[in-house]
Design goal:
eight-stranded mixed beta sheet; binds S-adenosylmethionine; globular; four-stranded antiparallel beta sheet; about 50% helix; 12 strands; N-utilizing Substance Protein B Homolog, Chain A; alpha/beta
C-alpha cells in the first residue's frame, strides 16, 4: 500500500519525467497536480520545481555516487535519483523517508534491478553526506561553481561573467534558485491612510520604491485579492507599466499582450484611453479576457501576428516582445535548460521583425515602447541601437535629458525579476 506522502511524489516524479521529455513544467504540473489536496500540491510543486531548478547541482553529486556515468543511466532512473537526492539535500524531510517514499513512487515505472540501483545510490548519498568538492570553488573556478552549485547552463554563466562582476552574477544565480515572493500591483488610483491600514492588517506590506506595490506576507494571493483591488505582478513588470504610462498619449496598442498583466496595469492607470490588447495566441488571449473580466477592464481584444498587424496607425505601441526570459528564470524552473544560443538567435530575429512592423504603425510624434523580460544585450540595448540606426525617424524619448534612458531592472538588486524597456519617439514629420 502506498503511504500518505506517496501521491505528491508520484505527481512530482511525473512532472520531472514530462520535462525530461520536452514538456513545460507549469503545464505538466497543472495536469498532474489537479487531483491533489492543496497541501499535497504544495509539496509536489516544491519537490518537482526544486529538483528541476537544481538539476545540475544534483547531477554534480550524483556523478560521484553513481558507478556509471549519468548519461548511461536510464532517464527514468536518473529522474528518480534527482527527486530522491533533492529531498535529502534540500528539504527537512528525513532521509530514510525521502528514499522509501521515492522508491515507492517509482515502483510501477522501473524494474526491481533499477530500484536496487536507486536505493544504493541514495543510501550512499545519505551516508556520505554532501561532498562540496564536486562544485569547485567560486573564486578559483566561477564557471564550474555557478554552473554546478548554482545550477545554471555553463554558456549562460560565461556570458553573464563577461558582462557583470562575479558578485552580481552570484546573486543573480541565487535569485534564480529561490521561488519568487508574491507581490501585487494595486489597481486603484488613490488610497487613503485607512485603506493602507486595512491592507497592512490583512498581511500586505508596502514595497519600498514602488508606491503601487505590496508583498503578500501571510495567506494566499486569493485572500489578499479579496481585500485589495489588485493583480499579482512582479515589481519589475510593474516598473515597465509605470515607464510606459508616463506622459502616454492617445490610443495604445499592446501588441504582445497575453497573459495581460501589463495590459491590466495600463488599462487601470488610464481607463478612458482606448487600449487594444493583441496576441498571436488565441489560447493566451483568453487569459487576457479573464484578467479583464476579473478587474473590470475593457480592452479591445485582437488575435493577430504582430509582424502583420491588423491595425493601421496608432499613437502609442507597447511591444512586450517574446524573449529568452533570462530575467524571469526563477519563475520557470525548466526555462534555463530549454534555452540555447540558437534559440536566443532565433528570438532576436523574431524581435527584429516585430519591432519593424510595430514602428511602422506609430504616428509621427507617437511613442513605441519596446520591452522584454530578458537580461541579454542582443535582445535589449543592441536590438534598440540596431533599430535606431536603421530608422532615423526615431530617437530615444527624452534624449539628452535625465529621463531619456532605457529602463533596466536587475533582478539581483531588489529581489525582483529582470526587465528591460526603451521608449522610442517617432519624430514629427518635416
Ligand atoms: C513576454 S509575453 C507578453 C507578456 C504580457 N505583455 C504581460 O505583461 O502579461 C510575449 C507574448 O508575445 C506573444 N507573441 C509571440 N509571437 C507573437 C507575434 N508574432 N505576434 C503577436 N504576439 C506574439 C506570445 O504569445 C506571448 O503572449
Amino acid at each position: 500500500m502506498a503511504g500518505p506522502d506517496v501521491a505528491p511524489r508520484i505527481a512530482a516524479f511525473g512532472v520531472l519525467r514530462d520535462v525530461s521529455a520536452g514538456a513545460y513544467a507549469d503545464r505538466s504540473a497543472a495536469d498532474r497536480f489537479e487531483h491533489l489536496s492543496s497541501r499535497d500540491r504544495r509539496l509536489a510543486q516544491r519537490l518537482a520545481y526544486g529538483a528541476i531548478r537544481l538539476r545540475a547541482r544534483l547531477d554534480a553529486e550524483l556523478s560521484e555516487f553513481s558507478k556509471r556515468p549519468l548519461y548511461e543511466l536510464d532517464p527514468v532512473v536518473l529522474d528518480a535519483l534527482r527527486l530522491g537526492l533533492y529531498q535529502i539535500r534540500e528539504t527537512r524531510i528525513p532521509a530514510h523517508a525521502a528514499v522509501n517514499e521515492t522508491l515507492e513512487a517509482v515502483r510501477s515505472l522501473v524494474s526491481a534491478g533499477a530500484r536496487g540501483l536507486i536505493n544504493a545510490v541514495l543510501r550512499r548519498a545519505e551516508r556520505e553526506g554532501r561532498n562540496t568538492g564536486v562544485f569547485g570553488n567560486l573564486d578559483e573556478d566561477p564557471v564550474r561553481y555557478l554552473s554546478t552549485w548554482g545550477s545554471h547552463p555553463e554558456w549562460l554563466v560565461r556570458r553573464w561573467l563577461d558582462r557583470w562582476p562575479l558578485a552580481a552574477v552570484q546573486r543573480l544565480v541565487e535569485n534564480d534558485n529561490r521561488p519568487p515572493r508574491v507581490t501585487l500591483r494595486l489597481l486603484d488610483a488613490r488610497r487613503s491612510a485607512d485603506d493602507w491600514d486595512r491592507l497592512e492588517a490583512a498581511g500586505l506590506e508596502r514595497i519600498e520604491g514602488h508606491p503601487r506595490m505590496v508583498q503578500v506576507t501571510s495567506g494566499s494571493p486569493r485572500d489578499a485579492m479579496s481585500v485589495a483591488f489588485a493583480i499579482t505582478q512582479d515589481p519589475a513588470a510593474s516598473s515597465v507599466v509605470d515607464y510606459v504610462s508616463e506622459d502616454l498619449e492617445g490610443p495604445l496598442l499592446d501588441a504582445c499582450a497575453a497573459p495581460g498583466g501589463k495590459t491590466m496595469g495600463l488599462w487601470h492607470a488610464s481607463p478612458a484611453r482606448p487600449l487594444i490588447a493583441a496576441d498571436v495566441s488565441v489560447d493566451r488571449l483568453v487569459k487576457v479576457k479573464e484578467a479583464a473580466a476579473a478587474t473590470g477592464a475593457a480592452p479591445y481584444l485582437v488575435a493577430m501576428d504582430a509582424r502583420f498587424p491588423a491595425v493601421r496607425a496608432v499613437r502609442s505601441v507597447l511591444l512586450d516582445a517574446p524573449c529568452s526570459g533570462t530575467g524571469v528564470l526563477r519563475r520557470r524552473p525548466d526555462a534555463r535548460w530549454r534555452l540555447t544560443p540558437d534559440r536566443l538567435e532565433s528570438l532576436v530575429a523574431l524581435q527584429e521583425a516585430l519591432i519593424e512592423a510595430s514602428a511602422a504603425l506609430v504616428e509621427p510624434g507617437g511613442l513605441l515602447t519596446y520591452a522584454t523580460c530578458s537580461l541579454e544585450p542582443e535582445e535589449n540595448e543592441q536590438l534598440v541601437e540596431g533599430f535606431l540606426a536603421r530608422h532615423p525617424e526615431y530617437r530615444r524619448d527624452g534624449e539628452g535629458e535625465a529621463q531619456g534612458r532605457d529602463l533596466f531592472v536587475k533582478p539581483w538588486e531588489h529581489d525582483s525579476d529582470g526587465a528591460f524597456a526603451s521608449r522610442l519617439r517617432r519624430r514629427r514629420a518635416g
